[in-house]
């Protein structure tokens, strides 16, 4: 069976792999799945700012309606806004039409469960199975679903954030923020939120436009050149950028320094643990040790998970965690909801600045610095398992290896850093991540274990 759902829902180029027929079929399969446990499921649907959104929204809605689901269209919203609506308004499911940070020719479909979290692999597999078998169960003519629109999603979401942060404290500071929505789904939401937090706003690319005229919607340094330049130019307190569907946020400090996502992640983890006098912070095995350092130092505990934000969110719920997230700017605040939330991240970063009466650069300076070396190596798919097993086995007796973690690939903790060999799910390669305080040492660690893996491939 071909897989439809990847790590982030279904994605593809519009009118090639991502077309109306697929969306209609997925809608029918989704509805058939929901109807198994609910007589009249209510599904919220929203989109990002892409040009093909209406085409896909209407096709998937038609499928859902045909199976007897009621569909409520909440319009153009960030992914976390739709997630919040599903959770707060008791929808059985949510559909977000988005392809996140991908180029404009892409679009996609992502599923949200009743609790507002992203679909688990199990749910996706059930929907895929119905789709490929075409075992749709359509409603009788009297029972097809109803379609309506609701324009309350953005207010509900903004109020949710305002209830989860110290609004008065942030307002007092009258922060000047340069906001770069990247012409994406953050446009209708984030400027309003910042106004309510008493901020002065300098806007960059805050008009929704699915051609992404401002810049590519992945918030990498090369795409945020205008933001990086603007923050010191207008003497702002910080810069904030959102990706295409506004689930991830990236920050620029008052001096115009781009802050990598591992730093903002660690900063929020640190203050979550301080505020709650300890607690569990959750992040994938790929995250920098600066996260572990600040959490442990402040009396918290760290749980490392497999890569993927739905997995992080699920572990956070199960362990009653105080904070979690990924180092790509996807931060999860349980006081709001269990999903990556960029607008909440922006409000929270300002709250941390205000509470500590410090600039963003001063706060980031408190986060330990590590050097990362990333590389990859070819490995036939059928040898990935043996490489990981042998690496784990061989290094168990190696005195320089302090711990072997097999959560996702093989991660070896050394006394001066770590290395992670992680098999790609789609390509015949291993991704190799190594980290140390020293740049050349990080590279040396990566090369040493890459070589060891190559020898294992040759011997097997
Ligand atoms: Mg995204």
Structural descriptors:
460 residues, 4 domains, 15 helices, 5-stranded mixed β-sheet, 6-stranded mixed β-sheet, Alpha-D-Glucose-1,6-Bisphosphate, Chain A, domain 3, 38% helix, alpha/beta, binds magnesium ion
Q: Gist?
A:
By secondary structure, the protein is α/β, with parallel strands linked by helices.
Please describe what this structure looks like:
The protein is an alpha/beta fold and 460 residues long. The chain has four domains: 10-154, Alpha-D-Glucose-1,6-Bisphosphate, subunit A, domain 3 (Alpha-D-Glucose-1,6-Bisphosphate, Chain A, domain 3); 174-255, Alpha-D-Glucose-1,6-Bisphosphate, Chain A, domain 3 (3-Layer(aba) Sandwich); 261-364, Alpha-D-Glucose-1,6-Bisphosphate, subunit A, domain 3 (Alpha-D-Glucose-1,6-Bisphosphate, Chain A, domain 3, 3-Layer(aba) Sandwich), CATH 3.40.120.10; 371-459, TATA-Binding Protein (2-Layer Sandwich). The chain is 38% helix and 22% strand. It has a six-stranded mixed beta sheet, with helices on both faces. A five-stranded mixed beta sheet has the order 8-7-9-10-11, sandwiched between helices. A five-stranded antiparallel beta sheet has the order 16-20-19-18-17, with helices on one face. α2 (53-66) links the parallel β2 and β3. The radius of gyration is 23 Å and the shape is globular. The mean pLDDT is 96. Residues 100-101, 243, 245, 247-248 line the site of magnesium ion.
Number of strands: 20
Helical residues, percent = 25-40%
Q: Label the CATH architecture of the largest domain.
A: 3-Layer(aba) Sandwich
Annotated CATH topology of the largest domain: Alpha-D-Glucose-1,6-Bisphosphate, Chain A, domain 3
Tell me the β content: 15-25%
Oligomer: single chain
| Envelope shape | globular
Q: Please give the domain count.
A: 4
Spatial strand sequence of the major β-sheet: 1-5-4-2-3-6
Radius of gyration: 23 Å
CATH homologous superfamily title of the largest domain: Alpha-D-Glucose-1,6-Bisphosphate, subunit A, domain 3
- For the report, how would you describe the main beta sheet? 6 strands, mixed
Average of pLDDT: 96
Name the structural class. alpha/beta
N-to-C CA distance = 29 Å
Low-confidence stretches: none
